[in-house]
Amino acid sequence: MMSTAAAPWRIANWDRFAMAIDSLVDIMGSPRIWMMPEENDTVNTRSRGEGIRTKQEQKQVFRHESNHVPRESLVKGNSIHSLDKTISKLEEELAAARAAQESIMNGSPVTESLRIADFTSKRKYLMVIGINTAFNSRKRRDSVRATWMPQGDKRKKLEEEKGIVIRFVIGHSSTSGGILDKAIEAEDNKHGDFLRLEHVEGYLELSAKTRTYFSTAVGLWDADFYVKVDDDVHVNPGTLGKILSSHRLKPRVYVGCMKSGPILAKKGVRYQEPEHWKFGGEGNKYFRHATGQLYAISNDLATYIAINKHLLHKYANEDVSLGAWLIGLDVTHVDDKNLCCGTPPDCEWKAQAGNVCGASFDWICSGICRSDERIHEVHQRCGESEDELWKATF
């Protein structure tokens, strides 16, 4: 049964959609069909209150109307184009509403803090940063909280003034309500910085988790971009915001450090792809996709994933999965190497040259090696100052 709180919002948006359709019909008007009389036809055209027209008069009327149609069509065409964009936007909003409604109907803990006013007010955010984390990563989360992720009132201020939402993203254990879930609940009660997903955690389920994250986030926050980052990566939110905001006006944007690594077919190796045969013969490489440590997609792509999540195939590696979901679409791939800087001295040299990195990690470890210990050093030497974050404009 649908939540009574969700019903008014859903109905209101269907009304807006219906109004847009009605406006389209009004502009289009009744269709006109003009037919030239046959040469052998007798005169058969009569206007109300007029006499019978000759064939020559009919031809003149036809030419007059034919010459007049293009000007009307031009005006109508512009209006129709405008309405088409409006309808497309409404379809995206309805898709986001369905994602939120599904969470409500499934009883997801995510929806406990959901407020319909958040949707009706349509607060617009720049980006939602989802930090992918696991049950056994408490030390990593604490190190992130102590470095680049603002805490308490500062985090709320970041959302309100800069439009940047940051949350740790995690699902549930296979034993619902078990000790692992209770530990996360206690941590969330203390910090209030989790996004809980309707998803069962597991290393082999990262593609499903990524899909669920985007579907859930686009239903909760109306943002220009949705970012996924691992909990052993250092991020400069202000710099990341500037990078993404420069692509704000582009439709269907996919931003990250693009790569096309080898497809590993041998069993037992890390990142082995069981469906390697789909990508061609031995020695082939994957299509171009963003590396999994950090990437971002625009609102329309996150909405696409939310709408089609049950049809999107999951490969062994979540970054490959996302690339596969987008490879067949008209998407702009943005390869930005400032989102995959190395740890000091690499990011430090770049910062000293005035080119602050959006994200830093060690390729050898697929993240910062021993990040719970070393991320403090990375932040000290490569992190943006608080002033830079709060003064940043997007």
UniProtKB/TrEMBL annotation:
Q: How is this protein named in the record?
A: Hexosyltransferase
Q: In which pathway does it act?
A: Protein modification; protein glycosylation
Compartments where found = Golgi apparatus membrane
Which family, according to UniProt? Answer: Belongs to the glycosyltransferase 31 family.
GO molecular-function terms, A-Z: galactosyltransferase activity
What InterPro entries does the annotation carry? DUF4094, Glyco_trans_31
Enzyme Commission number: 2.4.1.-
Species this protein is from: Chenopodium quinoa
Q: Which UniProt keywords apply?
A: Glycosyltransferase, Golgi apparatus, Manganese, Membrane, Signal-anchor, Transferase, Transmembrane, Transmembrane helix
Cofactors needed by this protein, per the record, are:
Mn(2+)
Domain of life where this protein originates: Eukaryota
Top-level EC class as recorded in UniProt: transferase
- How would you describe this protein's topology in the membrane? Single-pass type II membrane protein
Annotated Gene Ontology cellular components are: Golgi membrane
Q: What is its main location?
A: Golgi
One of the Pfam families matching this protein, by short name:
DUF4094
Q: Where is the DUF4094 domain?
A: 31-100
